[in-house]
Amino acid sequence: MSNIIKALRFISILILTVIVSLPVFSQEKVFGEDTLKALYSYKFALFTEWPEAKLNDGNAALEFCIIGRNPFGQSAMDAIQDKPIKDKSIHIEVYDSGVLSEESLNNCHVAYISNSEMQRLPALLNSLQQFPILTISDIPGFSKRGGMITLIKSGDHIQFEINPDAIKQAALTVSSKIIELATLVKTSNAGRN
Fold first, then answer.
1. CA dist., res. 151 & res. 113, Å (int)
2. How confident is the model at residue 30 (pLDDT cuts 50, 70, 90)?
3. Alpha helix locations (H) across 47-183?
4. Which of residues 33 and 25 earns the better pLDDT score?
5. Does some domain include residue 56?
């Protein structure tokens, strides 16, 4: 009987270890939607390359900027705050007003654009495109309007679209491992308005 209990404990630990080590893309039922979107954003940042000057800007942190009303609960924020990326740790900054100074834009590495900014999206994307900032949102059609990554809820899953041209224009590189999982889109002329 003791051997059976030991075997069951071993199997339980093994299963838990496998679940904890699974990539975020397979843990969709474990987390709330906002935490899942925050973790996806973190994974995208892990697989992104910024220009050397952007990473060596003197900041000890990789700035994750939320533009507009914060869509993430505390558990979602805690899930990514201080996580390591490129020898830096994530620091989250929220710009509730949706307005960023040029200095703030220079500091941002990732910009998550909230649904509250839907009306201002064309002007916001226009101001962001001159900076090497990875742009992510769940605004419908975000990537077709010039954003880089759109998170799309589909049933119990999160899918995503990527606009490779927008990524290239910002002098960023996203790993082919992420590109292969995405639906690729281009900026449409109608989407810019």
1. 11
2. low
3. 52-55, 74-80, 102-107, 121-128, 164-169, 176-179
4. 33
5. yes
